[in-house]
Write a structure and sequence with these properties.
Elements lengths: L6 H7 L2 H16 L1 H8 L3 E4 L1 H21 L4 H15 L5 E6 L5 E5 L7 E5 L7 H57 L5 E2 L3 E8 L7 E7 L5 E8 L3 H19 L5 H15 L6 E9 L4 E7 L4 E4 L6 E4 L17 E4 L5 E5 L1 H4 L10 H11 L4 H16 L8 E8 L1
Antiparallel strand pairs: 1-2, 2-3, 3-4, 5-6, 6-15, 7-8, 8-9, 9-10, 10-13, 11-12, 11-14, 14-15
Helix pairs in contact: 2-4, 2-6, 3-4, 3-6, 4-5, 6-7, 7-8
Length: about 400
Protein backbone atom coordinates (compact mmCIF):
# COMPACT_ATOMS: atom_id res chain seq x y z
CA UNK A 1 0.00 0.00 0.00
CA UNK A 2 2.13 2.82 -1.30
CA UNK A 3 1.03 6.42 -1.67
CA UNK A 4 1.26 7.47 -5.30
CA UNK A 5 3.90 10.16 -5.81
CA UNK A 6 2.73 13.58 -6.98
CA UNK A 7 4.45 16.02 -9.33
CA UNK A 8 5.09 18.39 -6.41
CA UNK A 9 6.93 15.57 -4.62
CA UNK A 10 9.34 15.26 -7.57
CA UNK A 11 9.99 19.00 -7.45
CA UNK A 12 10.69 18.84 -3.70
CA UNK A 13 13.04 15.88 -4.11
CA UNK A 14 15.16 17.32 -6.94
CA UNK A 15 18.86 17.69 -6.23
CA UNK A 16 20.35 21.24 -6.10
CA UNK A 17 22.12 20.85 -9.46
CA UNK A 18 18.93 19.63 -11.16
CA UNK A 19 16.96 22.41 -9.49
CA UNK A 20 19.40 24.97 -10.88
CA UNK A 21 19.04 23.55 -14.40
CA UNK A 22 15.26 23.66 -14.05
CA UNK A 23 15.40 27.27 -12.87
CA UNK A 24 17.51 28.24 -15.91
CA UNK A 25 15.06 26.51 -18.26
CA UNK A 26 12.08 28.17 -16.61
CA UNK A 27 13.86 31.55 -16.70
CA UNK A 28 14.43 31.29 -20.44
CA UNK A 29 10.89 30.12 -21.18
CA UNK A 30 9.17 32.80 -19.09
CA UNK A 31 11.54 35.67 -19.90
CA UNK A 32 9.94 35.65 -23.34
CA UNK A 33 6.93 37.33 -21.71
CA UNK A 34 8.98 40.53 -21.44
CA UNK A 35 9.45 41.23 -25.16
CA UNK A 36 6.04 39.73 -25.99
CA UNK A 37 4.34 42.15 -23.63
CA UNK A 38 6.06 45.04 -25.39
CA UNK A 39 5.09 43.74 -28.84
CA UNK A 40 1.46 43.26 -27.81
CA UNK A 41 0.99 46.83 -26.60
CA UNK A 42 -1.46 48.77 -28.72
CA UNK A 43 0.57 51.95 -28.34
CA UNK A 44 3.08 53.01 -30.94
CA UNK A 45 6.31 53.65 -29.10
CA UNK A 46 10.02 53.09 -29.21
CA UNK A 47 11.28 51.76 -25.88
CA UNK A 48 14.79 51.90 -24.48
CA UNK A 49 16.85 48.71 -24.52
CA UNK A 50 17.37 49.16 -20.81
CA UNK A 51 13.64 48.78 -20.32
CA UNK A 52 13.60 45.69 -22.58
CA UNK A 53 16.33 44.10 -20.49
CA UNK A 54 14.57 44.90 -17.20
CA UNK A 55 11.25 43.61 -18.50
CA UNK A 56 12.84 40.40 -19.77
CA UNK A 57 14.88 39.74 -16.63
CA UNK A 58 11.92 40.46 -14.39
CA UNK A 59 9.58 38.10 -16.26
CA UNK A 60 12.04 35.21 -16.22
CA UNK A 61 13.36 36.05 -12.75
CA UNK A 62 9.96 35.72 -11.09
CA UNK A 63 9.39 32.26 -12.60
CA UNK A 64 12.92 31.11 -11.71
CA UNK A 65 12.49 32.41 -8.16
CA UNK A 66 9.34 30.33 -7.76
CA UNK A 67 11.36 27.24 -8.68
CA UNK A 68 13.97 28.05 -6.04
CA UNK A 69 11.79 29.39 -3.25
CA UNK A 70 8.41 27.81 -3.95
CA UNK A 71 9.33 24.85 -1.74
CA UNK A 72 10.17 27.12 1.19
CA UNK A 73 7.96 28.87 3.67
CA UNK A 74 5.00 30.80 2.31
CA UNK A 75 6.26 34.19 3.54
CA UNK A 76 9.47 33.80 1.49
CA UNK A 77 7.32 33.22 -1.58
CA UNK A 78 5.34 36.38 -0.87
CA UNK A 79 8.56 38.41 -0.61
CA UNK A 80 9.82 36.99 -3.91
CA UNK A 81 6.58 37.81 -5.74
CA UNK A 82 6.45 41.29 -4.19
CA UNK A 83 10.04 42.02 -5.25
CA UNK A 84 9.63 40.97 -8.87
CA UNK A 85 6.25 42.68 -9.11
CA UNK A 86 7.89 45.95 -8.09
CA UNK A 87 10.53 45.39 -10.76
CA UNK A 88 7.90 44.71 -13.41
CA UNK A 89 6.04 47.90 -12.60
CA UNK A 90 9.18 49.96 -13.20
CA UNK A 91 9.27 51.35 -16.72
CA UNK A 92 12.58 52.48 -18.12
CA UNK A 93 12.53 55.44 -20.50
CA UNK A 94 10.95 55.38 -23.89
CA UNK A 95 8.59 57.45 -26.03
CA UNK A 96 4.92 56.47 -26.20
CA UNK A 97 2.45 57.84 -28.77
CA UNK A 98 -1.26 57.05 -28.50
CA UNK A 99 -4.63 58.42 -29.62
CA UNK A 100 -6.83 60.24 -27.12
CA UNK A 101 -10.64 60.31 -27.13
CA UNK A 102 -10.62 63.06 -29.77
CA UNK A 103 -8.44 61.13 -32.18
CA UNK A 104 -5.45 63.30 -31.33
CA UNK A 105 -2.02 61.95 -30.49
CA UNK A 106 -0.96 61.95 -26.83
CA UNK A 107 2.77 61.81 -26.12
CA UNK A 108 3.93 59.94 -22.95
CA UNK A 109 7.33 59.37 -21.42
CA UNK A 110 7.61 55.89 -19.86
CA UNK A 111 8.90 56.15 -16.33
CA UNK A 112 7.70 56.88 -12.80
CA UNK A 113 5.27 59.48 -14.15
CA UNK A 114 4.19 57.58 -17.24
CA UNK A 115 0.56 58.45 -16.69
CA UNK A 116 1.31 62.17 -16.98
CA UNK A 117 1.00 63.54 -20.53
CA UNK A 118 3.86 65.74 -21.63
CA UNK A 119 1.84 67.47 -24.28
CA UNK A 120 -1.02 66.95 -26.65
CA UNK A 121 -0.56 67.19 -30.37
CA UNK A 122 -3.64 68.47 -32.08
CA UNK A 123 -2.27 67.84 -35.55
CA UNK A 124 -1.70 64.40 -37.10
CA UNK A 125 1.76 63.08 -36.29
CA UNK A 126 3.94 61.89 -39.13
CA UNK A 127 6.92 59.67 -38.38
CA UNK A 128 10.01 60.00 -40.46
CA UNK A 129 11.33 57.01 -42.42
CA UNK A 130 14.25 56.78 -40.02
CA UNK A 131 11.87 56.60 -37.01
CA UNK A 132 9.74 53.94 -38.69
CA UNK A 133 12.84 51.95 -39.60
CA UNK A 134 14.08 52.14 -36.01
CA UNK A 135 10.65 51.07 -34.69
CA UNK A 136 10.37 48.15 -37.10
CA UNK A 137 13.96 47.10 -36.44
CA UNK A 138 13.39 47.09 -32.69
CA UNK A 139 10.18 45.09 -33.01
CA UNK A 140 11.91 42.65 -35.35
CA UNK A 141 14.75 42.15 -32.86
CA UNK A 142 12.23 41.69 -30.04
CA UNK A 143 10.34 39.06 -32.05
CA UNK A 144 13.47 37.11 -32.96
CA UNK A 145 14.72 37.38 -29.38
CA UNK A 146 11.44 36.06 -28.03
CA UNK A 147 11.60 33.06 -30.37
CA UNK A 148 15.21 32.30 -29.40
CA UNK A 149 14.46 32.57 -25.67
CA UNK A 150 11.50 30.24 -26.02
CA UNK A 151 13.48 27.75 -28.12
CA UNK A 152 16.48 27.65 -25.78
CA UNK A 153 14.18 27.44 -22.76
CA UNK A 154 12.26 24.53 -24.26
CA UNK A 155 15.48 22.68 -25.13
CA UNK A 156 16.83 23.24 -21.61
CA UNK A 157 13.55 22.05 -20.08
CA UNK A 158 13.55 18.87 -22.18
CA UNK A 159 17.11 18.15 -21.05
CA UNK A 160 16.09 18.57 -17.42
CA UNK A 161 13.10 16.26 -17.87
CA UNK A 162 15.20 13.61 -19.62
CA UNK A 163 17.82 13.72 -16.87
CA UNK A 164 15.16 13.45 -14.17
CA UNK A 165 13.42 10.57 -15.96
CA UNK A 166 16.73 8.74 -16.27
CA UNK A 167 17.53 9.38 -12.61
CA UNK A 168 14.05 8.37 -11.46
CA UNK A 169 14.23 5.22 -13.56
CA UNK A 170 17.49 4.27 -11.90
CA UNK A 171 16.07 5.00 -8.46
CA UNK A 172 12.93 3.01 -9.27
CA UNK A 173 15.07 0.03 -10.22
CA UNK A 174 16.99 0.31 -6.96
CA UNK A 175 13.75 0.61 -4.99
CA UNK A 176 12.30 -2.45 -6.75
CA UNK A 177 15.42 -4.41 -5.79
CA UNK A 178 15.07 -3.19 -2.20
CA UNK A 179 11.39 -4.18 -2.19
CA UNK A 180 12.29 -7.66 -3.44
CA UNK A 181 14.88 -7.95 -0.67
CA UNK A 182 12.36 -6.79 1.92
CA UNK A 183 9.74 -9.25 0.71
CA UNK A 184 12.31 -12.01 1.08
CA UNK A 185 12.69 -11.06 4.75
CA UNK A 186 9.10 -12.00 5.53
CA UNK A 187 8.14 -15.69 5.85
CA UNK A 188 5.84 -16.95 3.13
CA UNK A 189 2.67 -18.47 4.58
CA UNK A 190 3.52 -18.42 8.28
CA UNK A 191 4.01 -21.73 10.12
CA UNK A 192 1.80 -24.46 11.50
CA UNK A 193 2.77 -27.23 13.91
CA UNK A 194 0.68 -29.70 15.89
CA UNK A 195 0.94 -27.46 18.94
CA UNK A 196 0.84 -23.96 17.39
CA UNK A 197 -0.36 -21.91 14.43
CA UNK A 198 1.52 -18.74 13.41
CA UNK A 199 0.72 -16.02 10.87
CA UNK A 200 1.98 -12.50 10.28
CA UNK A 201 1.59 -9.43 8.06
CA UNK A 202 3.50 -6.26 7.29
CA UNK A 203 2.38 -3.05 5.56
CA UNK A 204 5.16 -0.56 4.68
CA UNK A 205 4.28 3.13 4.89
CA UNK A 206 6.58 3.93 1.94
CA UNK A 207 8.05 2.00 -0.99
CA UNK A 208 10.57 0.36 1.34
CA UNK A 209 9.72 0.03 5.02
CA UNK A 210 11.80 -0.58 8.11
CA UNK A 211 9.72 -3.37 9.68
CA UNK A 212 10.23 -7.09 9.42
CA UNK A 213 9.22 -10.25 11.23
CA UNK A 214 10.57 -13.77 11.20
CA UNK A 215 9.31 -17.23 12.17
CA UNK A 216 12.12 -19.74 12.77
CA UNK A 217 11.67 -23.43 13.74
CA UNK A 218 14.53 -24.48 16.03
CA UNK A 219 16.23 -27.91 15.79
CA UNK A 220 14.96 -29.11 19.18
CA UNK A 221 11.28 -28.61 18.29
CA UNK A 222 10.94 -25.11 19.74
CA UNK A 223 9.74 -22.13 17.70
CA UNK A 224 11.39 -18.70 17.62
CA UNK A 225 9.45 -15.62 16.55
CA UNK A 226 10.94 -12.14 16.10
CA UNK A 227 9.63 -8.75 15.03
CA UNK A 228 11.73 -5.62 14.43
CA UNK A 229 11.15 -1.95 13.71
CA UNK A 230 14.05 0.03 12.23
CA UNK A 231 13.91 3.80 12.71
CA UNK A 232 12.93 5.66 9.58
CA UNK A 233 11.89 4.43 6.15
CA UNK A 234 13.42 3.94 2.76
CA UNK A 235 16.29 1.91 1.40
CA UNK A 236 18.54 2.56 4.42
CA UNK A 237 15.95 1.17 6.83
CA UNK A 238 15.36 -1.79 4.53
CA UNK A 239 19.07 -2.59 4.44
CA UNK A 240 19.32 -2.47 8.23
CA UNK A 241 16.28 -4.78 8.44
CA UNK A 242 18.06 -7.28 6.20
CA UNK A 243 21.20 -7.02 8.33
CA UNK A 244 19.15 -7.61 11.48
CA UNK A 245 17.56 -10.73 10.04
CA UNK A 246 20.92 -12.06 8.87
CA UNK A 247 22.49 -11.43 12.28
CA UNK A 248 19.54 -13.13 14.03
CA UNK A 249 19.70 -16.23 11.85
CA UNK A 250 23.44 -16.46 12.42
CA UNK A 251 23.02 -16.07 16.19
CA UNK A 252 20.36 -18.79 16.40
CA UNK A 253 22.86 -21.33 15.09
CA UNK A 254 24.76 -20.93 18.35
CA UNK A 255 22.36 -19.76 21.05
CA UNK A 256 18.60 -19.16 20.94
CA UNK A 257 18.01 -17.89 24.49
CA UNK A 258 16.30 -14.47 24.42
CA UNK A 259 18.82 -12.73 26.68
CA UNK A 260 21.86 -13.82 24.68
CA UNK A 261 20.15 -13.25 21.32
CA UNK A 262 19.35 -9.62 22.14
CA UNK A 263 22.78 -8.95 23.67
CA UNK A 264 24.63 -10.32 20.64
CA UNK A 265 22.33 -8.57 18.17
CA UNK A 266 22.88 -5.30 20.01
CA UNK A 267 26.67 -5.72 19.83
CA UNK A 268 26.52 -6.46 16.10
CA UNK A 269 24.15 -3.63 15.18
CA UNK A 270 26.05 -1.15 17.33
CA UNK A 271 29.14 -1.81 15.22
CA UNK A 272 27.54 -1.75 11.78
CA UNK A 273 24.63 0.72 11.99
CA UNK A 274 24.65 4.50 11.74
CA UNK A 275 24.53 6.33 15.06
CA UNK A 276 21.18 7.88 14.11
CA UNK A 277 19.56 4.52 13.40
CA UNK A 278 18.54 1.78 15.80
CA UNK A 279 16.18 -1.16 15.96
CA UNK A 280 13.38 -1.92 18.41
CA UNK A 281 13.02 -5.66 18.74
CA UNK A 282 10.72 -8.26 20.29
CA UNK A 283 11.74 -11.91 20.45
CA UNK A 284 9.89 -14.97 21.75
CA UNK A 285 10.80 -18.66 22.02
CA UNK A 286 7.96 -21.15 22.52
CA UNK A 287 8.76 -24.55 24.02
CA UNK A 288 6.06 -27.23 23.47
CA UNK A 289 7.73 -29.67 25.87
CA UNK A 290 7.56 -27.26 28.80
CA UNK A 291 4.46 -25.50 27.42
CA UNK A 292 6.07 -22.15 28.09
CA UNK A 293 7.12 -19.12 26.12
CA UNK A 294 10.03 -16.79 26.87
CA UNK A 295 9.63 -13.18 25.72
CA UNK A 296 12.21 -10.37 25.59
CA UNK A 297 11.83 -6.87 24.19
CA UNK A 298 14.37 -4.15 23.34
CA UNK A 299 12.69 -0.74 23.26
CA UNK A 300 9.67 -2.40 21.66
CA UNK A 301 5.94 -2.20 22.46
CA UNK A 302 4.76 -4.93 24.87
CA UNK A 303 3.69 -8.31 23.50
CA UNK A 304 0.09 -9.22 24.30
CA UNK A 305 -0.80 -12.67 25.70
CA UNK A 306 -4.50 -13.56 25.69
CA UNK A 307 -5.57 -16.25 28.13
CA UNK A 308 -8.21 -18.42 26.54
CA UNK A 309 -9.58 -19.58 29.90
CA UNK A 310 -10.36 -16.08 31.23
CA UNK A 311 -10.21 -13.80 28.19
CA UNK A 312 -7.69 -11.58 29.99
CA UNK A 313 -4.95 -9.91 27.91
CA UNK A 314 -1.57 -9.52 29.60
CA UNK A 315 1.21 -7.14 28.56
CA UNK A 316 4.66 -8.75 28.34
CA UNK A 317 7.56 -6.35 28.18
CA UNK A 318 11.12 -6.16 29.45
CA UNK A 319 12.50 -2.68 30.02
CA UNK A 320 15.63 -2.16 27.91
CA UNK A 321 17.09 0.01 25.14
CA UNK A 322 16.64 -0.60 21.44
CA UNK A 323 19.34 -2.49 19.57
CA UNK A 324 22.34 -0.54 18.28
CA UNK A 325 21.98 2.45 20.61
CA UNK A 326 24.49 1.65 23.33
CA UNK A 327 27.23 -0.94 23.57
CA UNK A 328 26.91 -3.45 26.41
CA UNK A 329 23.19 -2.94 27.10
CA UNK A 330 21.69 -5.55 29.43
CA UNK A 331 18.56 -7.54 28.56
CA UNK A 332 16.18 -9.86 30.39
CA UNK A 333 13.30 -12.17 29.52
CA UNK A 334 9.92 -13.21 30.91
CA UNK A 335 8.85 -16.87 31.07
CA UNK A 336 5.13 -17.58 30.79
CA UNK A 337 3.22 -20.85 30.68
CA UNK A 338 0.70 -21.21 27.89
CA UNK A 339 -2.46 -23.30 27.62
CA UNK A 340 -4.56 -24.54 24.76
CA UNK A 341 -6.16 -21.62 22.89
CA UNK A 342 -3.88 -18.92 24.29
CA UNK A 343 -2.78 -16.26 21.78
CA UNK A 344 0.44 -14.23 21.69
CA UNK A 345 0.51 -11.07 19.55
CA UNK A 346 3.71 -9.25 18.59
CA UNK A 347 3.42 -5.93 16.71
CA UNK A 348 5.23 -2.69 15.88
CA UNK A 349 4.27 0.75 17.14
CA UNK A 350 2.91 1.71 13.72
CA UNK A 351 -0.19 -0.26 14.68
CA UNK A 352 -0.97 1.42 17.99
CA UNK A 353 0.13 4.87 16.79
CA UNK A 354 -2.04 4.88 13.66
CA UNK A 355 -4.26 7.98 13.73
CA UNK A 356 -7.76 8.77 12.58
CA UNK A 357 -9.00 12.08 11.18
CA UNK A 358 -9.48 13.42 14.71
CA UNK A 359 -5.77 12.80 15.41
CA UNK A 360 -6.60 10.02 17.88
CA UNK A 361 -4.26 7.04 18.07
CA UNK A 362 -5.55 3.51 17.73
CA UNK A 363 -3.83 2.79 21.06
CA UNK A 364 -3.05 -0.35 23.00
CA UNK A 365 -6.45 -0.35 24.72
CA UNK A 366 -8.30 -0.78 21.40
CA UNK A 367 -5.80 -3.46 20.45
CA UNK A 368 -6.41 -5.35 23.71
CA UNK A 369 -10.17 -5.07 23.27
CA UNK A 370 -9.90 -6.41 19.73
CA UNK A 371 -7.84 -9.35 20.96
CA UNK A 372 -10.32 -10.14 23.74
CA UNK A 373 -13.19 -10.36 21.27
CA UNK A 374 -11.25 -12.26 18.58
CA UNK A 375 -12.24 -15.91 18.02
CA UNK A 376 -10.47 -16.42 14.70
CA UNK A 377 -7.36 -18.23 13.49
CA UNK A 378 -4.04 -16.33 13.49
CA UNK A 379 -4.25 -15.62 9.75
CA UNK A 380 -7.82 -14.33 10.07
CA UNK A 381 -6.89 -12.36 13.19
CA UNK A 382 -4.13 -10.52 11.27
CA UNK A 383 -6.45 -9.81 8.35
CA UNK A 384 -9.30 -8.62 10.57
CA UNK A 385 -6.99 -6.43 12.66
CA UNK A 386 -5.62 -4.71 9.55
CA UNK A 387 -9.18 -4.13 8.31
CA UNK A 388 -10.11 -2.69 11.69
CA UNK A 389 -7.08 -0.40 11.55
CA UNK A 390 -7.94 0.79 8.02
CA UNK A 391 -11.50 1.49 9.14
CA UNK A 392 -10.23 3.45 12.14
CA UNK A 393 -7.73 5.51 10.11
CA UNK A 394 -10.10 6.00 7.18
CA UNK A 395 -7.35 4.98 4.76
CA UNK A 396 -5.41 1.98 3.54
CA UNK A 397 -2.05 3.61 4.24
CA UNK A 398 -0.62 4.64 7.58
CA UNK A 399 1.94 7.15 8.85
CA UNK A 400 4.32 4.36 9.90
CA UNK A 401 5.05 0.78 8.93
CA UNK A 402 2.64 -1.71 10.48
CA UNK A 403 3.71 -5.30 11.24
CA UNK A 404 2.26 -8.03 13.45
CA UNK A 405 2.70 -11.71 14.25
CA UNK A 406 -0.02 -13.82 15.86
CA UNK A 407 0.66 -17.17 17.57
CA UNK A 408 -2.12 -19.47 18.76
CA UNK A 409 -1.26 -22.46 20.94
CA UNK A 410 -3.19 -25.71 20.58
Amino acid sequence: MVRKPKAFDTWKQMKPAALLRLAVAVFLMFSVLGPIEILMESELHLVSWKFVAIQTLASGGMAASIVFFGRKRWWIMILVVAFWTSVLTFNGGGLSLQFDENSNFRVRLNGPDNAKPLNVITQPLTLSPEQLDALYAQRGILGVGAILLLAFGYISFIKVVRAEVKDRSRLETEVNIAQDIQRSLVPDGGARESWCDIAGATIPATEVGGDYYDIIPLPDGRMAVAIADVTGHGVGAGILSAMTKSALRSQLQHDSSPVNVLANLNATLYEVSDEKMFVTFAYAVADPARRSIAVATAGHPPALLKRAATGDVEQLRTVSMGLGIQSGSAYSSLDNAFDRGDILLLYTDGLTEAMNKQQEQFGIERLQEFLRSSRSSPRETCSQLISELEKFAGAKTFQDDVSLVCIQFS
